[in-house]
Design goal:
Arc Repressor Mutant, subunit A, mainly alpha
Length: about 130
């Protein structure tokens, strides 16, 4: 961990900065979607999260949950039932990020028509340059 000493101010533009490494983990599509899903404030079971997040594998969901738990953004609660019931929720720290991620997700949803139009225009221009 000595390389972290090179980044005392947590400068995200420094390659060895722990804040930059955290941003790398958060920029993962599953991490953002999971934080957004949990931002409603409720505790959600593993299988419900998997159903809600179409396309994620059980292994990827488990890995993403563990990474976010290690970072202190989500908490895992195991209930003593047979079989054990496990629920996940954002921590206080995670909830502060949840607001930002939720706004980002709503921004993406609201602006998709403009983004798609820009992509189509770009693709048409790029195709003309190939001719």
């Amino acid at each position: 961990m000595a390389h972290y000493r090179e980044c005392p101010a947590y400068d995200v533009f420094a390659p060895a900065c722990p804040a930059r490494l955290l941003l790398d983990r958060l920029a993962d599509k599953w991490a953002l979607l999971l934080i957004d899903r949990l931002s409603a404030g409720e505790r959600i079971r593993f299988n419900q999260l998997r159903r809600d997040m179409a396309g994620i594998s059980q292994k990827m969901l488990a890995q993403t949950l563990k990474r976010l738990e290690r970072d202190g953004l989500i908490e895992r609660e195991v209930h003593p039932t047979v079989p054990p019931t496990v629920e996940y929720a954002l921590t206080e720290l995670g909830a502060t990020l949840g607001d930002t991620v939720e706004r980002l997700a709503r921004w993406a949803e609201a602006n998709m028509p403009a983004i798609q139009l820009a992509q189509q225009q770009y693709d048409r221009q790029a195709a003309r340059h190939l001719d």
